[in-house]
Every structure is written in structure tokens, then in C-alpha cells.
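ok trying again, last paste got cut off:
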Amino acid sequence: MCGDRYTEQRSTEGREKQNPEKYEIIRKWIDPDERVTVDFLDEKDVSAAITDGTTEHVALSIQTKFPHIKQHVSVSLGNVELGEDRNHYTRDPNRPLQHARLRMMINQKRPQWV
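nice, full thing came through this time. structure:
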């Protein structure tokens, strides 16, 4: 049942947004100390930080299985749908606590890394 709701959310949320609207939402999350949740087609609930972005692309620093190694990728905003992750909260103690964080659903597989 939860999977159906997620699929429905993924198919309806974020698709109608154009790149400038997506960037305005993403821009608030550009912070190397703040985490967002990223879902690829082949991997879900990946923790990442948004390091940069434009109205055309977003740069992510994705956590890996090795604590001090990050995977850096750039994704076209045309392949990104936006949502909200209510299972995680924000962690920056200098900002007001938010009980949800940004969820980015990327319509491609996670890039391989070595």
C-alpha cells in the first residue's frame, strides 16, 4: 500500500514544475552541511548534499559506504522530480528545525563510481 502511494506521488508530484521553479526550491537547500534524500531508479533513500545548481542542473555530493568519501555528480533538472521526505529532519543547529527535508527523485540510475 505504501509503495502504491509512493509511485502515485512520484508520477504526479514535480512533473508539472519547470526548471526555474525547481531551482527556486533547490536553491534553499544548497548547503554542504544540510542533507537531502535522493531516490535513483535503482537505489532509494540515498543521503546527499546539494553543492551547487543552476536552472539547468544540480550538483550533488552523495554519501557512500565509506564515511569520508563522497560521490560528486551533476544531474539535469529535467530528470529531477521534487518532493518532501517526512522521515528525516534537518540537522543544522543554527537554523530552525524542520521536520522534513527535500526529496529528489532522479529518473536515471545512480552513476557508477570507483
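cool. DSSP finds two helices and six strands in the chain. The first strand starts at residue 36 and ends at 39.
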